Each structure stands twice: as C-alpha cells, then as structure tokens.
Amino acid sequence: MASSQLLQRRTGAAPAARGSQAHAALLRPAVSRHTPFTAAPRSAAPVARISRSSWGRRAEPSLLVSVRAAAEDDGRTPDHPYPWEEDYDLLGDKVKAVTDELEKDLKGCNIWLVGMMGSGKSTVGKMLANTLKYTFFDTDSVIELAHDKKPVSQIFAEEGQDYFRQCEAQIIKELSPYRNLVIATGGGAVLRPENWGYMHLGIVCWLNGDVELLARRVAKDGLDKRPLLAEGGAADPQAAARAKLGSLLDERRRFYENADVVVSLEGYGRDAENGAPSPAVMYRLLTAVNEKVQAKKREQAERMNFRIEGAEQLRNMRTMESPAAAAAVQPGGEAAEGPAQAA
Predict the structure, then answer these.
(1) What domains are defined for the chain?
(2) Secondary-structure breakdown of the chain: helix, strand, coil percentages, each rounded to the nearest 5
(3) Distance, CA of 202 to CA of 304 (rounded, Å)
(4) How is the beta sheet containing 203-208 ordered, strand by strand?
(5) pLDDT tens digits, residue range 5-57?
(6) Are residues 256 and 208 in contact, defined by beta-carbon separation less than 8 angstroms?
(7) Where do the segments described as Disordered lie (predicted)?
(8) pLDDT (tens digit, 9 = 90+) per residue, 302-317?
(9) Cross-strand partners of 264
(10) With a threshold of 0.90, does the pTM exceed it?
C-alpha cells in the first residue's frame, strides 16, 4: 500500500497532491521550527456557570458573577529588584521589546555561551535561539552524534579528556564561519586559546553562577552524567560536586573573564535557592548583548565624528607654497646657490 494511502487511512484525510513535494509535506511535522518565548496567560478569577435551564430567566444576582472576597497571595516577592522575573506577562513584553531593537543591529552575529556545568547553557541557548530565530548547537550533543550517540561520560572514559577537547575544538572551528547561530560550549572549551580566536568572531556570553548553586543543580541531575565529577563514589553528592566545581572554577575563572558579556544566574525572592529561571536569564543575556551592541555603535559613530585642526587654513595642497622652497629663496629675491652653481 502506498505511504500516502496509509496516511489517509490513519488520519482520515486525503492527500492534496501525489507529487514528491506533496508527499514530503505530509511527512513533515506540523510544528513551527522557531517558537519564541511567550508568557503564560494571566490567571482569571473564577466565574459562576449558568446552566442552560436558567437561560431566558431572570437570574439571581448571586449567579451572575463570583467576586473574590480578598486578593489571594500570588507568590510574588515584595520589593523584588527585578519584579518582571516573577511576572511572565511583563517579562514576555520586555523580551519582545529588547529583541525588536537587537535584531536590527545583531545582523546574524553568532552568540557563544560559555560557563561551568550546571549553568544552564543548553536550556537558555535553546530558548535564546527560538527567540532570535537562530539555529542552536550544543557541542556536547554534536560530539555524541559523531560517536554513534555515545554519552559524553563514555567518550571521556574510552578516549580521554584530551581527545574530547580536540573534538570540541574542531566543532567550534567548523561552526564559526556560519551566521545566525547560538552555540552552547562545554565547560572546558575556554581552556584552549584557539577556541577564543573563533568564538570572538561572535559575541561570547558567560553564564556566571555561584558554586553552591551549580553544585545543587548538578547533584540533582546526577553526577554520573558529568565525567569530571563522577570519578569515585561520594556519600554526599552535593558536597563532592561543590568541592570539585570550586576547584574547576578557580582554574577557569580567568578564562571566563575574557567573555564579552557576563550574565549572573543569581535568583531573588522565591528563586534565591534555585537561581534565576531560564526566561529571566535569557532576558538578562539579551539586555547585556544589546547594551554591548549599542555601545559598539556609539563608539563607531564617535570615531566618524572628527575634525582636522586648522583645516580652514588648508585651501588646496597643490597651490600652497612649499615651505622648503620659500626657505631656499634669498632676501634679495635671488635663489640660493646650490652646490653645482658654486662650482
């Protein structure tokens, strides 16, 4: 049975055409490739339902509406320094505003995400790519696909860390010439100087989180997925992660500080323990990148705004008298004798 007929039997819809293009359209999932961040709708107050039997009658006032006696606690933190991080409707509006301004000037420039494990590079990167209508790459995932979907921990165990870093550097090199990309790199990608040469062709963003926050996150996900943390069992995974992450961050901090943009993962209010939510981190990143781009534009404009001192005195270089020729003329109007005349 033809595949189009099989699809028709399963879905009950007839194919629009029998060409190869129409067949490919049937197999293509009906999902938008890029879904920008949008806020969840506001919760509405409960309204009393009126049955069909009461239609046409004069309803009792108590059946028309239900009024809340008192405002319920919405869980927001009083005096929050960034209140939009707890109001996704307001956050969605702010994300749209900064994105509309940034898209005009970003011009397809790649965005590279660096940071320690547990900083949320992959989660924030996917959300950022969808919002900017970019394509997202995770270097760890690309390496896994190139090795028959072996997990990173297995590649580390079988081939060693040096081999993994070499693969990572090759991927960074091959992705750098392209445009409209968001690339999440491994935590140790910053250790190789050649990687910075390629990443600085775009904008490098460091997702900077406290060691305690990172330790909680990676311990919750499981240390087995982290080859640098899985060495040797530990009775307290969070304490083991904290010690190892602190050592790694001390080693890598000076490399991370070469990033163009630093984005804090610190959370406030109800997010103090788990860190800022991913949409809030993405908004912080967008804002920081936009400030960086606008500062670069102002710097270029200032370089173009210059004047030449004494320009009003320069009429035409071709008609101006040569200072050397004027000095060679004697006071009596005769030219000074050169070596040939003196002979």
Answers:
(1) 84-300 (3.40.50.300)
(2) 50, 5, 40
(3) 23
(4) 135-138, 181-184, 111-114, 203-208, 261-264
(5) 333 333 444 444 433 343 333 333 333 344 455 444 444 444 444 444 444 45
(6) yes
(7) 1-28, 321-343
(8) 888 877 676 666 655 5
(9) 208
(10) no
